[in-house]
Amino acid sequence: MSSRSQKGRFIAFEGGEGAGKSTQAKLLSDALRGLGVSVDITREPGGTPGAEAIRDLLLNPPTDRKWRGWGARAEALLFAAARSDHVERRIRPALECGTWVICDRFVDSSRAYQGGAGGLGDESILSLHNFGSEGLRPDLTILLDVPADMLGKRLALRDGTGSDAIGGRDAAYHQKVASRFSVIAQSDKNRVVVIDGGRDPQDVHADVAKALNPMISEFIK
């Protein structure tokens, strides 16, 4: 078994609304703990008290009829601020202690949502990330790819008639998000693994575990 002096590994799950990220993060954390690995499962935006407060501002913004919601730049800045606090106060300390961090979304979501669908571009998002979080990237990112029609059905079951401020945006917006995720995956194949998320959760988990096997074997040998 690895020693506590060995740094942990950082795994992020990405994908559109309803792709199954939370489910797969939980399945992976359970599997790793079964191997004796210390695991911290977290999410973005969120993960610390400060970041959770920002999450509420983003997903449940003020309802004043004269206010039209966060602009793209303000939204990107809020996500970057939440991530900065998350990285500084939770993710880096856990990794330094030898704990594996499994995160439901990380910077690639900002690249896809605010950078892609929001029109701000990749360079702007990465500049914010380089400043706020010192450019931290996951050791491995699992992108769960699910057809749009299946995502719609999953969201209807999950959210009913209510969605948060970002999840409730129109289909065209979410198609732009999916397209940008695809571009990110194609441009960084060494870090991003695309897995078909439209299947039974256990089948998806089996592929996630397969993608992680080399990393796990190296860590616990």
Written description of the protein model:
The structure is a single chain. The chain is an alpha/beta fold. The protein has one domain: Rossmann fold (3-Layer(aba) Sandwich), CATH 3.40.50. The chain is built from eight helices and five strands; from the N terminus they run E-H-E-H-H-E-H-H-E-H-H-E-H. It has a five-stranded parallel β-sheet with strand order 2-3-1-4-5, with helices on both faces. Helix 2 (49-59) runs antiparallel to helix 3 (72-96), helix 3 packs antiparallel against helix 4 and helix 4 (107-117) packs antiparallel against helix 5. The longest helix has 25 residues, at 72-96. The radius of gyration is 17 Å and the shape is globular. The model has no long low-confidence stretch (mean pLDDT 92).
The spatial strand order of the largest sheet comes to: 2-3-1-4-5
Q: What do we call the CATH topology?
A: Rossmann fold
Gross geometry: globular
CATH class: Alpha Beta
Give helix and strand order, one letter per element, not per position.
Answer: EHEHHEHHEHHEH
Major beta sheet summary:
5 strands, parallel
The CATH superfamily bears the name P-loop containing nucleotide triphosphate hydrolases
N-C termini distance: 6 Å
Number of helices: 8
The quaternary state of the protein chains shown equals single chain
Portion in beta strands: 5-15%
CA gyration radius, whole angstroms = 17 Å
Q: Taking all residues together, what is the mean pLDDT?
A: 92
CATH architecture classification name: 3-Layer(aba) Sandwich
